[in-house]
Amino acid sequence: MAQLDGPRFGPLSRGPAQQLVVVLHGLGADGQDLIALAPHWARALPDAAFVAPDAPEPCDMGPYGRQWFSLQDRRPAAMAAGARAARGALDAFLEAELARLSLPGSALALAGFSQGCMMALYAGLRRAVPPAAILGYSGALVAPETLAAEATGRPPVLLVHGEADEVVPAAASRAAESALRAAGIPVQALYRPGLAHGIDEAGIEAGAQALKAAFAGPALA
C-alpha cells in the first residue's frame, strides 16, 4: 500500500494541534495545489494542523500530477472500485496523522476538490469515527447506492460548485446533495453563478465557516 505524504501548514497559533484538516487535491494535481487554502482557513481554526497529501498514483491522463484512482473508465462501478481501492491508503494516512498529533478521530475534518471531493465523501462517510465535517468542492458522490448500508455516521457536509463548471457539472453536486439528504446526512450547498472548475473567495469563506462551526461544540473527548 502506498504511503502518502504532502505539504503541511500550522497550527497558526504555534501551539499543539487541536484539530486536523486534511485537504485532498484533484486529478492531475498534487498537495501543493490545495495547501494554499490552509492560511485562509487557519484564521477560523488557529489551533488546527493542515495537510494536503499527494494522491497515491501518477496521473494516467497527463504528463504530470497525481490521481486517487484512474478516470479512464468513468462508469459508476469502475469509479466505485477505484475509490474503494484508494480508501485504504488514505485511511492509513489519516490514522497516522491523528496519532502523530495525539488527536482523536473526532478532531478530523476532510476537504477535497474534484476527485479529491469524491474521496473526501467516500472515505469520510465510511470512517469508523466520523469526521467533524466534510467539505466538497466541484466534485461528485461516488457509489451513492451503497451509502445507506455503508455510512458510519452523519457528519455535516458542505458542497460548493460553480454553475459554469464544464469539467464536473454542477448537476453532480446537486445529485450528491439529494442522495446525502435522503441518507439523513446534513448538507449545506452553495452554487456559484459564473464559476468554472475552481474555488472562489465565497467558497473559501463558506469552508472557513463550516470548519469553525464543526469544531465549535463541546471539547473533544
For this entry, give a set of tags:
Rossmann fold, single chain, alpha/beta, seven-stranded mixed sheet, 221 residues
Task: Report on the architecture of this protein.
This protein is α/β, with parallel strands linked by helices. The chain is 32% helix and 18% strand. It is built from 6 helices and 9 strands, in the order E-E-H-E-E-E-H-E-H-E-H-E-H-E-H. The longest helix has 25 residues. The chain is globular. The model has no long low-confidence stretch (mean pLDDT 94).
What is the arithmetic mean of pLDDT? 94
CATH top level assignment: Alpha Beta
**Biggest sheet record:** 7 strands, mixed
Low-confidence stretches: none
Distance between the termini: 31 Å
Per CATH, which architecture? 3-Layer(aba) Sandwich
Count of individual beta strands: 9
Total helical segments = 6
Helical/strand content category: alpha/beta
Note the run of SSEs as H and E.
EEHEEEHEHEHEHEH
User: What value does the Rg take, in angstroms?
Assistant: 16 Å
Question: Can you identify the CATH superfamily?
Answer: Alpha/Beta hydrolase fold, catalytic domain
CATH structural fold name: Rossmann fold
Helix content: 25-40%
What's the number of structural domains? 1
Sheet with the most strands: spatial strand order: 1-3-2-6-7-8-9
Q: How much strand content do the residues show?
A: 15-25%
Question: Which term fits the overall shape?
Answer: globular
